[in-house]
Structure formats: C-alpha cells, structure tokens
C-alpha cells in the first residue's frame, strides 16, 4: 500500500443510471462556442473555426442537485451541455472510431462567473477563475451508450423557474462528438474517466439565489438544480 504524506483526496465518482456503481472521473474538458447561435451571442463569428477547449476540475462535477451561488461574483450564468464520458482513450484517435471510446452521456451545466470570466478575457488571461470554481458543473446520472445509443440529435432545453431560457438541438453542434474526441486526442492523451462537456446553445443568462433550473436533453431525461 502506498504511503502518502497526507490523506489523498477522495476520488470523484458520478452516478450511473440503473446501477449503484459509480463512474470515476479523471479529467474534464469543455469545448467553447460549439453552437453557432451561442457564438454570435458571445460576439464571435459562427464560422467553423478550429475548436478550442478549457478545463474544469474533476471535483467541480456535482450530482447533488444543488448549486451554491459562488463568492466574488454578481453575474453567474447557466449553460446547459451534454456531457460525454469516456471508457477508453489514446492519442491521434480517428474520427471514424472515436465513438468506440464513449461509455455514455449525461445532462450537465457549465456554470460560469461571467463577470470574472469577462475580466480575464480583457486581460488575455485564462478563464479558470470564471469556470473552474467549486461545484460549477452540476451533472445528472450517466446513461450508458449501450442503453441510449450514441446521441447526435435531440432537443436541448433549459428552464429557469418554469421559463425556457435555452433551446436547441444536438445536431446544431459545430463540432460533433467524434470530431471533439479526435481533435482533443491530437493534443492530449485521453483516458478512461475523461469527461467532455460538448458546448451550449444560445440563451445563456444569469441566475439568482432561490432559482430552480431544469435542464433537459432528449434521451437523457431532466436534471433539476436549485440555486442555493
């Protein structure tokens, strides 16, 4: 048994639909501006430019159904996303075989301290302070691909207090799931336990304490999250 100088952190395990087993998380990659309408609303050209990614931390993923409003921000935004979780990986993965590495999919949220992210953008600095804070990625149960198939189309919607804020379809993603996996594998060695948040449709906006968010992706059900 390895002798650690201090107690090691508890591994991050996510619920899997239909079983008591947990899915272990290794890394979290997030693609930016992957829906054309969202790129436009964020002030960017929707043309198919090379994808870009940022990272959240494994323990930012939170299946509790509660999102504590974070410190040092007064403008926290919701971004509904489909999470893609990998059962295997490698480098230089061909697009044609990329889906072979997918374990399953889940509904998730990329919560963003938009004011802090905006400050970092102006200074040309990394986004982590706006993206990778505690419990910034609420997530629902993982649905294995063997049960739901590989999702390339389907309605995506986020409601806040019963009002639809975001709406789109998975088929509107600029970079599809196999392309994301292949592209990432050219720059990182992907591995079992990696999670990819696949981008958000337009309509991102602020939440307040007490709000209830209901995120939906066809085939994956609803994720209900209360802003605490």
Automatic annotation (TrEMBL):
Q: Where is the Fumarylacetoacetase-like C-terminal domain?
A: 28-227
Pfam families from the UniProt entry: FAA_hydrolase (PF01557)
UniProt keywords, alphabetically: Hydrolase, Metal-binding, Pyruvate
Gene3D superfamilies on file: Fumarylacetoacetase-like, C-terminal domain
Q: Which InterPro entries match?
A: Fumarylacetoacetase-like_C (IPR011234), Fumarylacetoacetase_C_sf (IPR036663)
A molecular function (GO) held by this record is: acetylpyruvate hydrolase activity
Transmembrane feature ranges: none
Keyword hit for Metal-binding: yes
| Name assigned to this protein | Fumarylpyruvate hydrolase
Protein species of origin: Tranquillimonas alkanivorans
């Amino acid at each position: 048994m390895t002798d650690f100088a201090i107690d090691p952190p508890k591994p991050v395990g996510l619920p899997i639909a239909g079983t008591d087993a947990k899915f272990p998380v290794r890394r979290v990659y997030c693609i930016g501006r992957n829906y054309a309408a969202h790129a436009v609303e964020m002030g960017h050209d929707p043309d198919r430019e090379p994808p870009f990614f940022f990272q959240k931390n494994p323990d930012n993923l939170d299946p509790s159904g509660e999102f504590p409003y974070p410190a040092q921000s007064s403008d926290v935004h919701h971004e509904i996303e489909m999470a893609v979780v990998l059962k295997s990986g490698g480098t230089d993965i061909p697009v044609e075989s990329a889906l072979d590495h997918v374990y399953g999919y889940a509904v998730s949220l990329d919560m963003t301290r938009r004011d802090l992210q905006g400050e970092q953008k102006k200074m040309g600095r990394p986004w982590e302070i706006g993206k990778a804070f505690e419990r910034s990625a609420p997530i629902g149960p993982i649905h294995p691909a063997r049960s739901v198939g590989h999702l390339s189309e389907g309605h995506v919607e986020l409601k806040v207090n019963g009002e639809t804020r975001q709406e789109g379809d998975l088929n509107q993603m600029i970079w599809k799931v196999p392309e994301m996996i292949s592209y990432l594998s050219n720059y990182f060695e992907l591995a079992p336990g990696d999670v990819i948040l696949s981008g958000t449709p337009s309509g991102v906006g602020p939440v307040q304490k007490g709000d209830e968010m209901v995120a939906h992706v066809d085939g994956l059900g609803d994720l209900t999250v209360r802003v605490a």
